[in-house]
Design goal:
5-stranded antiparallel β-sheet, 4-stranded antiparallel β-sheet, 3 helices, 9 strands, 17% helix
Length: 219
Amino acid sequence: MRALRSKLTYANVISTLCLFLVLGGGAAVAATQLTKNSVGTKQIRNGAITGPKIKRASIEATKLTPLAISTLDGQKGAKGAKGATGARGATGAKGDRGATGPQGAQGVPGNPGAFATVLVNPSVGFQGSHPGFTAVERAATGAYCLTPTNGTSIAHPIASASWKESSGSAHFVEPLGGGEVSFCAAGKLEVLTYDLQELPTVAAVPSNGVAFTVFAPAG
């Protein structure tokens, strides 16, 4: 002890104390001086916080700047392969029947065309109804003129003999449409009737004994 005391001087004690404060005490004081919320951007060295030190999913998108978000959006990966088609879903329940809609406006009545049956015995005239025609007259032997009502088209008439009301056995009826007339006034439908004779040669002879039905389609 005497030897140790003889070595202890004021300078030695001060030096040892300073060394202790620098190695231990100084660090302890520095640690105790870091109070809550005392570290800010000035205390963090540039580049000190790296990716591995950031906890995954710890930074929300709302904390990023628009520039950072646009940069991340630009890092779009390659398009993945198309997935397999999923199974077809079950058929849904049948829906309820909808309400009946309002009735539409009545359409314009259609034009059924004109038709008439002309009898020749004992006199010339219509049999029953004759829509589309108002009158019929004989202009010459086997030549009949039918007067159509306004709007009745006689451009493409059709006619045939009425065998039951006709005399003889072989008849031929020819309607002339489209204004082609020989015995009738313009605008009337002309119908020519014939008896077919075989002797001495086959011929069509105008006849007043042939009744006929004529039809003029609409339009």
